[in-house]
Amino acid sequence: YPSELLMQKITEDNQIPVHLHVSVSLQYVAGLKGRALVEFFHSNIAEVENEELRHLMWSSVLFYKTPSVEVMACVLLSTKAIYFLLDDSFIHADEHQSDFWNKENSDCENSSFHLSCCFVLKLNDLQSVNVGLFDQYFRITGHSADHIVTCLTRDSYNTHTFIQQLMAVLSLLARTPSPEPVDKDFYSEFGSKNTGKMENYELIHSSRVKFIYPNEEEIGDLAFLVAEKMDGLTSLPSLNILLYVLAFQVNHFEGSAQNTSSLQPKTLILTSSDLFLFDEDYISYPLPEFAKEPPKRDKYQLADGRRIRDLDRVLMGYQTYPQALTFVFDDVQNQDLMQNLTLDHFGE
After folding, report:
1. Mean pLDDT score of the chain, rounded to an integer?
2. Residue 149 belongs to what domain range?
């Protein structure tokens, strides 16, 4: 340790997504390669001497206590813990975080010293991992509200790779074995006899950490929700969701010095007839066991919805991934004009 293969892999993974901005301190981390990166981990981040760095990933993260603040983080997985190296700007983003982050080094803002705060979640405290729809994100849950973090990878490959590495590391933990399970039939194992409703698919790891994957009913619930938002189309016997992807909506601001743009996280859902943008709560659902009341907002809130037949053209940028798409819709005052004309002309 570290092997050449590991050093090559974490060097390749140590790249900040080009569309997201980070502080100088995290840019410094992203500039480290190979052995220098491993030495940086051991001298600045690792909590015990004999832990090994196994995986590195750059991702946007959300905390349960601050569900509206998405922040960029360098996620480091070791044989003892998961470390989230965060932007120092995150501390100032929300005034309600004073009890969450104990910030003492407030006098170094104007110096050449750049501060990063590191959030640590020990593997022994890990209870469950919820994987989001189509592996676009995953939520890590510990024993309290302070220990719930969602990683918005927006990439099924990154999600899958991290989950595989996490399972491998958890296998090394020495935990007391669970009691022998009583033999159960299929229905009592996966369903509730009272409601007849199938539960989400759970995989209980040998370390007793639950890995929870969404089942088909989540897509059905989402399709039902989308159908409710579609005026006059709720009577459709079947509504197919063709695409679900976590994206950003670009808000362009024309400033005096230079034109700037901000990225607003959105969930894009495409059906056979409509294109929707939702504001989704990625951190509060499913409810943690200790939650006393439901979250203040719904899981999905409609931000915008347009009919595909009103789509005039799609403009594609020439930059590399992530690709920018501009959807141009016809500005029709009466949305149902075409539909009514058709019905009147052709009768029933």
Report:
1. 81
2. 4-174+195-212
